[in-house]
Amino acid sequence: MNKKSSLYLLIVLIAKIVIPSIASVISQRNNINDVLPFQTSERISETSRFKNKYKRNKGNKARSRNVVVPPFVSVETPNHNYPIGLLLTGNASIEDSCTASVINTSNGNIGLTAAHCLLDDEGNPWDLSFLSFSPGYDNQSNGTLGAIPVVATEMPPFLANRHKYDYALVRFEFNHGGARLQDYTGALGWRFDIGNGEPTIMFGYPESGNIEDCANDGKHLCRWQGTTNKSEIVFGINNLIPGEGSSGGPFISQYNAETNLGYVYALMSGYFEIANISIASIWDKLVFLNLLSNITP
């Protein structure tokens, strides 16, 4: 399926939720949070190459069982967890930023971001020397650990389907006396079983947009709170313009403000102006677990 066809199908999918939602808002002004779930009768197919690589099997235990990994509290600073940070990309002439997060893994140095954050404008992967991550970045200042190099990345076939596969794993170069990155920052838990209408917190570093109580200048960590809608391939947030820099921002379920931790289940991907909706790819569990296996030494 080419890029134009994929975009058309996504617009059709979004239209099927946005139009009913508008009607619902008009008829139920006293309950603006009631929105209809995404609906679609069409699936965006994978490429045959990708199907062969990640062939599904009814007997595949990783596919059949639910996977829920809990959050990890910092060992070094248990009262101060800061797994979310700024991901810098670019070279001497071009610099861009996204949002990334540390997730709980046995390796301890693994994070998440949007796949498109790891590619230049031509769709080529950035040289790893051009990538760095600062957990706890805020107010135009690096976190206490400074900027940490990225030494490996893994992503699904994003260019084959940009809307379905806009997520990626990154591995950081970190070892302080045997301690892992998540031993310092803490780490978000992660899961695949989130449904429609999930209460969610989303964090990011937007350079623009309409997130409330946010400087929207790319220099401050901002927070959005609300519920997400679910289709077959994306989660959506109606009426939210996330702004550049928020890409890769974690969608967190069961967020605990005291620990600054919860379960990440999706990542901010982008904004569709025609439908006034922000979207995040739904993770394919088998694909995600393969990425994690590949990036773990």
Automatic annotation (TrEMBL):
Signal peptide: none annotated. GO terms for biological process: proteolysis. InterPro entries: Peptidase_S1_PA, Peptidase_S1_PA_chymotrypsin, TRYPSIN_HIS. SUPFAM superfamilies: Trypsin-like serine proteases. The chain crosses the membrane at residues 7-26. The keyword Transmembrane helix applies. Keywords: Membrane, Transmembrane, Transmembrane helix. It comes from the Eukaryota. One of its GO terms (molecular function) is serine-type endopeptidase activity. This is Peptidase S1 domain-containing protein. The lineage of its organism: Eukaryota, Fungi, Fungi incertae sedis, Mucoromycota, Glomeromycotina.
